[in-house]
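Why this split exists: single-chain examples teach little about how molecules sit against one another. For that reason, every record in the complexes split bundles all components of an assembly together and asks for one structure covering all of them. Below is a record exactly as it appears in the raw files.
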Amino acid sequence: MQLIQLLIDGIASGCIYGLVALGFVLIYKATETINFAQGDILMLGAFVAYSLIGIMGMDYLTGFALTVLIIAVFGFFLDAVVVRQIIGQPAFATVMLTIGLGFIFRGFASIYWGTDIFSFSTPFSGKITEFNGLIISYVNLSIIIGTAILMSALYFFFTFSKIGVAMRASSENQLAAYYMGIPVKFIFSLIWSISAGVAAVAGVLLAPITLVDTSISLIGLKAFAAAVLGGFGSIPGAIVGGIIIGIVEQLCGTYENYLFEGVREISAYLVLILTLIIYPRGLFSDKAEVKKV
Amino acid sequence: MRFIFKTKYSQDINIAKHNGDRFWYSLLVLIMVALPLVLDDFYLGEISYICILSIAGIGLMILSGYTGLASLGHAAFLGVGAYTHAFLLTNGIPFYASIPIVIIVSFLVGAIIGIPILRLTGMYLAIATLALGFIAEHVFIKWEHFTGGNRGLPVPQPEFLGMSFYDSVFFYYVCLVFLIAAMFAAINILRSPTGRAFVAIRDSEIAAQSLGVNLGLYKALSFAISGAFTGLAGALLAHYIGYLAPDIFNIFLSLTLLLLIVVGGMGSLHGTVFGAIFVGFLPQLIAICRDYLPSTIGSQPGLEPMLFGLILVFFILYEPLGIYGRWMKIKLFFELFPTYKRQTFKKQKVFTKSDRV
């Protein structure tokens, strides 16, 4: 029973990792760059939600939707104005650029909102449901259900909508997409905006658990583990990878005594390193074979 | 414009290209040696710190600037160096024996870490080093027997050559000597076949491999050499700080080192010194900025990361060659006056290698 309880908690936190990893994967698939500021965008999402819901007293769902919209627009312009300029430079430059952007966001957040820890009330806070002796908090439930809804929405978007198909086409082959009359640059900015929006969703869902402060941007680093485990470049892989990381973390936390002290905090990074060393393709990779030196 | 008349093949790999170089660098060394006559203890401390940063910068520059491998966890090597040094000194090993051991240990740690993760390329490597940096920070916290954990570890300041490390003039000279030695070692590594192989790997792995460079070996070697330099810097840093706590060697320090080489100028040893001067005086710069900003913004703790990020983004976007690159442009402008062309340093677009099939 305790194991199932752990699994549920693990899946809930894993969904958050998965959502952030999803953001990495979307951008990576499209532009082959990695956005190291993804965790910081998540943090911005949580802070904007705090402003809208906590300070301005907006209704939870309205505030949620508005937050995602604001962050998505922000993501669009982030690509269109800043990141696009770096195309054609070595990969190292993109890494440094997005790290620098992450620092700017974190600095801005702590100047604008301050360094205190904030919280805002949600319809789920503090409520739990019992089921056969299992205790499930509404917050965890909201995360799992929210992720499921978002995933199916994205699935339908990428499969049936015209823009979604255009995005897949641009990711598949830029040049061919240009020839077909797809506005590739615009599409890429749109992908950045979706990925920022997904991070904002994760940020708002996460807010009741970790509360809102600048340190939640570190989630982005754990999400790398999820993305790598899922085989960077696969959308279902990102979510499954996230859930695995979440569960591993919970298990390591509970059975810490049998392993070594402090294993919980670094378990995600250990999984990351081990994946990269043993099976760098990841679980769901669509790549034929990762090049080895 | 100076034209060098070449009469020997070996001229191409001479350390000093002409007498002008010899003159200016000798003058620089003389000025550095004479500095304690002019400056007080505070500024000597600052300059010692800049020397230490430069040594660490040389380490990262060899890895990132010359071999083209990104490392986002280089503070781990500083930590390894600092803790090893403090541990050895605490157990009564003298300074002159401890430093070589630190260098060897950091070299080995670099090699051991490097061999498995250097099969990765580009982004994966950046992510893996980031994760390793976190794991290292955690090891420093939890391995209490060796590091003292969160309580910290006081660094003994032994006598060396009859002088104490508390004496800032003496410490300054120690740092300066190590910086000059490290610079010399780095220059010689980089003009040897090993260094040429590093640069070849940076510019094109496939071309390097075709010319018979063993990629795995040289990448691991680059990582190990880089670790050795950074470890040495860590040992000196231990003396500078005096009390080691695990949270010193966090990701922010790793990124500061990256800022150092980006601002200084990727792919130049001059750049490490320029970058170190910049990073060393950054806190003062921020303090000055605070004074000029309105107090509501100026007193915020978030100003530091924000400025840090802004500088990084600014350099990446507008001056990818860093301060040294800017210096080269200014120099060339006066040498070629009035025929200088902006296009000489035009950013070259490269075709990004695709991982896709």
